[in-house]
C-alpha cells in the first residue's frame, strides 16, 4: 500500500521566551504537540528545519486577545514575528484567537516542559475544527 504524503499545518503559540510548536496529523484532522523552541537567535533556523521535515504548507499562530476582545501587549511582538516568517517562508499564515490556552494545557496535562507545545496544539485544533467543519 502506498503511503500518501499530505501537507501539514504548523501551529504556533508565541511567547517572548518560548515558542510552542504543534503539527497537524490525521490528514489534517487533529493537532499534535511537537516541541518547544527558545525564542532566541536560532529560532528561524529551527523553524526552517521543522517546516521542511514536516512538509508544512500553512501556519497558524495564536492571536493574543484580552477579555474585552482587544489585542494584548504581546500582539506587537507576534506581528513582528509574523513579518519575519513572511520574509523567510512563502506560506499562508492565519491567526487563530487563543484565550487561556496555556491554562487549558496545564489542566489537561499538569505543568511540564511541553505546556507551550500543548497550547500550540489547542490553537491548531481550534483552527482545524473550523476548517474541517466548513468542508462537511
UniProtKB/TrEMBL annotation:
Annotated protein name in UniProt: Putative pre-16S rRNA nuclease
Domain (YqgF/RNase H-like): residue spans on this chain: 7-105
GO molecular function: hydrolase activity, acting on ester bonds; nuclease activity
Gene Ontology cellular component annotations, sorted alphabetically: cytoplasm
Top class in the EC scheme: hydrolase
Function: Could be a nuclease involved in processing of the 5'-end of pre-16S rRNA.
Pfam families in the cross-refs: RuvX (PF03652)
Chief location bin: cytoplasm
Enzyme Commission number(s) from the entry: 3.1.-.-
InterPro entries tied to this protein: RNaseH-like_sf, YqgF, YqgF/RNaseH-like_dom, YqgF/RNaseH-like_dom_sf
Cross-referenced NCBIfam families: RNAse_H_YqgF (TIGR00250)
